């Protein structure tokens, strides 16, 4: 998440190169290369913290996404897309990021008032989802499952979690 003392407006962005055209996303879970990153967020003292920013067209609206900061979709967009939130996942040192939407629109989650029992049941289920190679997706920042656990169910996945089955 962005530090509290970080400038939070779109205008306080340091362009890293000439502005690229918006990334138009017909489908989600798309790789974003470094050439499509248009700026970096700055601290209020003008030091760059290295969080890349991208602009995308998403269901007829332009969104500005900062790396690793999920954005809750407005009601109309969420209804159109069937998803609750969108994120630009980026791991420093890699030469790409990934844009993905996650969370089923209309489904209950911990942020919208789900009970503690529902949270426990969801985390037991979600923390044990594996990809085609047998790796747990709850630890992969490029997975919608990770962001759903982290953002919608407010849990930080850990290896020694009580929710992981041996």
List its traits.
alpha+beta; disordered N terminus; single chain; five-stranded mixed β-sheet; four-stranded antiparallel β-sheet
Q: How far is it from the N-terminal to the C-terminal residue, by CA?
A: 30 Å
State the low-pLDDT regions, or none: 1-22
The percentage helix is 10-25%
Order of helices and strands: EEEEEEEHEEHH
Task: Tell me the Rg in angstroms.
Answer: 17 Å
What's the number of helices?
3
Mean pLDDT: 77
Give the amount of beta strand, in percent: 25-35%
Q: What oligomeric arrangement do these chains adopt?
A: single chain
Global outline: globular
Largest sheet: 5 strands, mixed
Q: Find the count of extended strands (DSSP E, 2+ residues).
A: 9
Determine the structural class based on helices, strands and strand pairing: alpha+beta
Number of domains: 2
Give a concise summary:
The chain has helices spanning 75-81, 116-126, 144-152; strands at residues 13-15, 23-24, 30-33, 39-42, 48-58, 61-66, 71-72, 83-90, 96-104. It has 166 residues and is of the alpha+beta class. It is globular, with a radius of gyration of 17 Å.
Give an account of the 3D structure.
- 16% of the residues lie in helices and 30% in strands.
- Residues 1-22 have low confidence and may be disordered.
- The chain is globular and about 40 Å long.
- β4 (39-42) and β5 form a beta hairpin.
- With 166 residues, the protein is an alpha+beta fold.
- It folds into two domains: 1-105, no CATH class; 108-166, no CATH class.
- It starts with 12 loop residues before the first strand and ends in a 14-residue tail after the last helix.
- The protein contains three helices and nine strands; from the N terminus they run βββββββαββαα.
């Amino acid at each position: 998440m962005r530090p509290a003392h970080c400038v939070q407006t779109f205008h306080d962005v340091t362009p890293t190169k000439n502005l690229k055209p918006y990334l138009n996303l017909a489908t989600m879970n798309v790789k974003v290369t470094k050439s499509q990153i248009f700026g970096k967020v700055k601290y209020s003292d003008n030091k760059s913290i290295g969080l890349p920013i991208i602009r995308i067209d998403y269901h007829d609206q332009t969104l500005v996404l900062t790396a690793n900061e999920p954005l809750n979709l407005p009601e109309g967009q969420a209804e159109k897309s069937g998803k609750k939130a969108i994120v630009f996942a980026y791991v420093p040192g890699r030469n790409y990021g990934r844009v993905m939407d996650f969370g089923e629109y209309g489904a209950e989650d911990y942020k919208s008032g789900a009970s503690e029992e529902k949270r426990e049941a969801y985390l037991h289920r979600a923390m044990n989802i594996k990809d085609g190679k047998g790796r747990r997706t709850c630890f992969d920042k490029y997975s919608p499952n990770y962001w759903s656990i982290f953002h919608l169910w407010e849990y930080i996945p850990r290896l020694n979690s009580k929710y992981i089955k041996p």
